[in-house]
Amino acid sequence: MEYLENRELSWLKFNKRVLEEAVDANNPLLERISFSAIYQSNLDEFFMVRVGSLTDRAITDKKKKDSRTGMTAAQQLDAIFTAVRRLQPGVEDAYRKNMEELAPSGFEQVTMETASKEERDFLELYFKREIKPFISGIVVNDALPFPFLKNKEIYAVVQFSSKKDISIGIIPVSYDHGERMIPLGNGGKRFILTEDVVIHFAHLMFKNYKVIDRALVRVTRNADIMATGKGEEFRRNMEELVAKRKKLAPVRLEISDDFSNDALDYICKKLKIKNSRVFTSRIPLDVSFLFALQELDGREELHYPKRSPRVPAALSEKKSMFAQIKAKDMLLSYPFESMSLSFIRLLQESAADPKVTSIKITLYRLARNSKVIDALCTAAENGKDVLVMIELRARFDEANNIEWSKVLQQAGVKVIYGPKDYKAHSKLLLITRKASGGDYDYVTQIGTGNYNEKTSAIYTDLMLLTADREIAADAEAVFNGLINGTFVENTNKLLVSPLALRPQIIAMMDEQIKISENGGNGYIAAKINSLCDMVIINKLTEASQAGVKIDLIVRGICCVIPGVEGYTENITVRSIVGRFLEHSRIFIFGRAGKEQKIYIGSADYMSRNTIRRVEVAAPVEDERLKKRIRDMFTVLMKDNVKARIMNSDGTYVHAECRDGEEPLNSQEYFYADAYKRLEDKKARQEQMRINRSKAAEKKKTAVKKRRTVKKNK
pLDDT band for position 446 (50/70/90)? Predict the structure, then answer.
C-alpha cells in the first residue's frame, strides 16, 4: 500500500532524526556530540533486538511477510543494511565536524600519527607498562580455535605473513582497570583512545610473527531472548538466559577502515556471519566516550541551559499527598515537575502512614539507587501488605530486575512476575487506606513512564493521581489478573490490554467516524512513541476517508504515511526530537467539550502493546486537567524548533516558523510554564499572606478604636 511504511525502515528514519541533532547548530557543541553517542546506542540495540529477531525469522519462517509492505525477513534485512550504509557518511561527518569545532576549546582526539614525538615515546612506555601486562594476544589459524568475541567489545586484529593458510592475531582492547581515554593534556581534553595505542603496538604482542595488516573490529550479537516458567523457576530461567545472551550469534561486524579481504573473509567464516553484515567505520567504533567529554568543560555556552524539575504547583507541602488526591485529581508532568517531591513523597508517606493497609505496584525499569524500592521495603517492614509485579523480561534491565526482586522479597514484599508469554508494561499503583466508619479510601496512579528517578529527569511523561473508586476497582482487577495469570475483560473506566484496550480505542474512533458521516467535525489525536498496529492503522485510514481530522505526534516508528490522496489526506504526522526523550502517551477523541474523551497510559499503538502486553490507560475526567492536556497538545502541534513533519512521500522535514510566528520549542515552553506556575503560586500565597496581615491589622485597629470610644464614654 502506498500509504504504509515498513516498521524497521521507519525506525531508521527516526534514528536519522536523532543524528540530525548532532549537526544542529542551535544545539550547544557538547550536547551535539551526545546525540552521536545516542545514535550509536540506538543502532546497537536495533541490531541486537530487531535485526536479531529478523535473522531468526529469515531462517525459521522464510516466507512470512511484513503485513504493511509485503517484505520477507530477508528482504527487510537487505533494506536495513542498505539504509544503515547510506547513513554512515553522515555519522562520520557529524563526528569529525563536532570534534573540529571543539578544538578551539582544547578538545582533541589524538592518533599515533598526530601525536608529538614526546607523546609517542610516552605512549610506547604506557603500552608496555599499563596495557600489555593485562591483555593477551591470541593466534588463530585453522589449527587453532577461534576465540569468543564479546558483544560490543573492541578487538585489535592483525594478519600475519603466511605462505599457506590465513593466520591472524586477536587482542582484546578492554581490561578491568583500563581507561578507554588516555589523557595527554588540557585536563584530559587532549586524549588518545586505548584501541589506537593497542593497534599501533600490536606487533609487540606477537614477537615471532610478521604483521602485514591490522584493524579494529567490534561484534554485535543477537539479544532476542524469551524465558518461560512460573515463580522462582521463571526467575532462574531468566538468569540463565541473561547469561546466555552474551553468547548468542553475531548479527553485525564493524571494522575500522580497510583490511585484507582474505583476512576479513576468514573472520566472517569463523564468526559464521555474511560479508553483507560487515560495516566499515572511519571514526571510533564505539563513541560512547563522547558522554565523558561533557564532564571536562563546564562552560555554559557548551551545554544546554541548566534546568531542574520544579515542585508541582498543584501540591501543598503542608497537606498529605493522600488527602490532596482525595480532594481532587492531579496530573503531574515530568521532567518539568519533580518525581521525588510528588510520587516518591506519596510512597514514603504511605509507607509510614499507620492507616495505609496495602500498596500494589507494577515495576518495569528502575533507577540504580531506587527510592521506590526503599519506600516499598519500608512499607513491608512496617507491616503493610505490599505486592510488587516486577517484569523480569524488561529488555536489557533483566539482571537489574532480578536483583531488585530478591531485595524486595528479603524485605517481606510479595513479588510476582506476571502472566506467561505477556510482558506487564503498565505503570500502575494502587494504595488502600482505612477511612472513618470502617470504610476504605483508595489512590490509584496511572502513568506513561517508568518509576525511575533518573529517566524522569530526561523523559517527558505524565502521571494521573486519582481517588476515583471505579478506577481503583479496575486497578484491583488488573492486579488480581496479574496474580492469577488471567486478563481483564471488562472495566469501568480503565483501558487494559491485551483484551480491553484496543477494542475500546477502535470503538471511540468509530464514534468520531459517525460524527463526521453525520456532518459533524470528528477529531482523533494521539501522542505516542510508535504506530504500527495494523488494526489501528486501518481504522485511522477509514476515519480519514470519512473526513475525520487526525493529528498524530509520533516520536519514532510511524507506519502510516499521511497526506496520501484517497487514504490518509486528513492525517498529519509530526515527530519531536530534542533535549528530552518524548515518552508520554496521550489519546484524544473528539473536539473540546464535555463529550471529548482523553486518556493517558503506557501503551503505544503497536500490536505488542495493544494485544501482547498488559498495559493500562486512564481517562482524564477533571475538566481542569483535560484543558491542561489540550493546551499541552496544542503547544506540541505548534513546535517549530524541534518538530519534524512527515510528507506524503514518507520523508520528514523540519517544521518552520511561518510569517509572524515566534520560534517555539515545546520542551523549553513546558519548563518555563512549570517555573511560571510555581512562581504564580508563590505570588498568590504571598498575596494571601499580605491580605491576612492587612485584615489582621485592620481588625486590630478596629478593636483599638472600639476600646477608645468605650473609654471616652
Answer: very high
CATH number for the domain whose boundaries are 1-105: 1.20.58.310
Number of C-beta neighbours around residue 316 at 10 A: 13
What does the block give as the cell for 479? 492486579
Same fold, 1-105 and 112-273: no
CB 545 within 8 A of CB 513: no
Could you tell me the fold of the domain covering 321-486?
Endonuclease; Chain A (3.30.870)
One-letter amino acid at 33 equals: I
Query: CATH assignment of 112-273?
Result: 3.30.1840.10
| Three state DSSP letters for 662-707 | CCCCHHHHHHHHHHHHHHHHHHHHHHHHHHHHHHHHHHHHHHHHHH
The answer to whether the CB of 620 falls within 8 A of the CB of 464 is yes
**Taking CA 446 as the corner, what is the angle to CA 440 and CA 451, rounded to the nearest 5 degrees?**
110
pLDDT in tens, 589-610: 999 888 999 999 999 999 999 9
425 classed as catalytic: yes
Query: Domain-by-domain residue ranges, the chain?
Result: 1-105, 112-273, 321-486, 496-664, 667-713
Task: Copy the grid coordinates of residue 455.
Answer: 529517566
Distance CA(56)–CA(78), nearest Å, equals: 14
Q: Which CATH architecture has domain 496-664?
A: 2-Layer Sandwich (3.30)
| DSSP code string of 353-398 | -TTEEEEEEEES---TT-HHHHHHHHHHHTT-EEEEEE-TTSTT-H
Choose the catalytic residue: 200, 203, 425, 583: 425
Compute the distance between CA of residue 58 and CA of residue 643 in angstroms, rounded to an integer: 36
pLDDT band at 227 (very low <50, low <70, confident <90, very high): low
How many CB atoms sit inside 10 A of residue 20's CB? 18
